[in-house]
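ping. complex inputs:
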Amino acid sequence: MKKLANFFTGSLEKTIGLILFIALWELAPRAGWVNSTYLSPPSTVVSALIALLKSGALLKHLLISLQRALVGMAVAVSFGMIFGLFIGYFKKIEGYLDALFQSFRQMSAFALFPVFILLFGVGELSKTIIIFWASLWPILLNTINGVKNVDTLLVQSAKSMGASQKFIFLRVILPAAAPDIFTGIRLGGSYCVMSLVAAEMIGATSGLGYLILYSQETFNIPDMYAGIVGLAIMGLGINYALKLIEKSFSSWKQGVAVGE
Amino acid sequence: MSKIQASKIHRQFQVNNDFGKKTKLMVLDDFNLQVREGEFLSILGPSGCGKSTFLNMLAGLDKQDGGQILIDGEPVSDRSFDRGMVFQGYALFPWRTVLENVEIGLQIRGLEKKEREEIARYYLTMVGLTAFANRYPHQLSGGMKQRVAIARVLAYQPDIMLMDEPFAALDAQTRETLQLELIRIWEADKKTIVFITHSIDEAILLSDRVAVMTARPGRVKEIIDVSLPRPRSEEIRNSSEFAQIRQYAWSLIKDEVTKAQGLQESIEKGQETIMVQPIISLQQKFKDMIQKRIGGHNEKIG
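pong. complex structure:
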């Protein structure tokens, strides 16, 4: 019983900000502080959400968005990890490329969108590329950093035992860099969702980003907010999934912060 | 026959001095040493004398600029299954459990999981850590970590064990316990051990011979035969023979420590911080300066 009570007070503490925000959001249009035409109260948004779910429109848009996000992420993760590991391992290359990477990283994916459209058209390809571009850099740079910062003592230790280069790479450098790589992937995940919306707002006919913009243009404001909420839930879901994966890969780290 | 034969070793590093200029730092010069098969040899020297550099060369982690190191009559190779190294910083793999850490050398040698585990468990028992097999390194104390590192090296049965100040980071009591355990383990199977330390007591307690090094550039100044009887126990530290050897070793190394810490040399080399004799008159002046500021407030704070 006590445990259950603790659970509720614990969750209450964590979500109190969210609950207050939703209450304020409900109150503001109803009390007439904000024009309710522009700001639909959450109760209206929820019923819009349910209607969209029933008609299957939400699921359709969500699945398409999710697919785009996953494809873009998958390409960014594989590309970023492979090149990151390679570049971090050969420190000299990193020196040559650092300035280039730092400038690329600063180049917003949104700014480059017109370029991608010019080169790849308005279809799926340029959408995938913008997502890829946005999520690539944190993954690539964190992987490089992770590999570069592997404790040399561990490498020396493996060498002194007669380990081959392959063993050192796969069994020492890769696991040692894994926490940094996952930090990059999680960062990339949030950039991925951000750029996804932008991509779907230009020249798209499906996806949550499209739903949001289209609802606004047709003055279907509750649907617009429903799309935004759906997007937030999708972002949370992706982040949660990445966290789970990260946890399973670095379970040995649990308690390090507490213990030392 | 000598197991390890190092002759005319020369090694220098490029370092940046205080002014950011590159200078050459001669670490080892005309370094000669022979280590016999099955002996416990300590290399004793002041900080920065190049003793760890030499050990790294034996481990294949560093290369001399001149001279030759032979192990069993062959030049040292980068990769070898015959050497085991214990580092001061433990060098355990944080994502592996204690058992998996002890297995890693065996994994490198291609043993099956079952064989690895059997061997690893045996050596974990030897160092008294059976109960900790499934813990991670960060859950262990420093002394336990170093035991794991020792078990890891013993497990893959190297010909030569290289130990780089393995107990220097441990507290005094743990250090003594581990020294005695190391003696016990070594006396049982007499591997060749090259042991780096800057503790005279540790060197004498453990070793058959102690090579005393000069300050940088490091050379072997003299080799002391430690003729204390074996098996050795804690009490041997109190014997008059032990005291005599310690006295002698101290007389050899005293000048070198002074030299290593000496102001003149460090200024010439343009690097490393140094400790100098306190200048009493200056210290008094500083005290007065501080006192002048806080003088009036003292009672209030107190």
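The CA atoms of residues 168 and 175 of chain A lie 10 Å apart.
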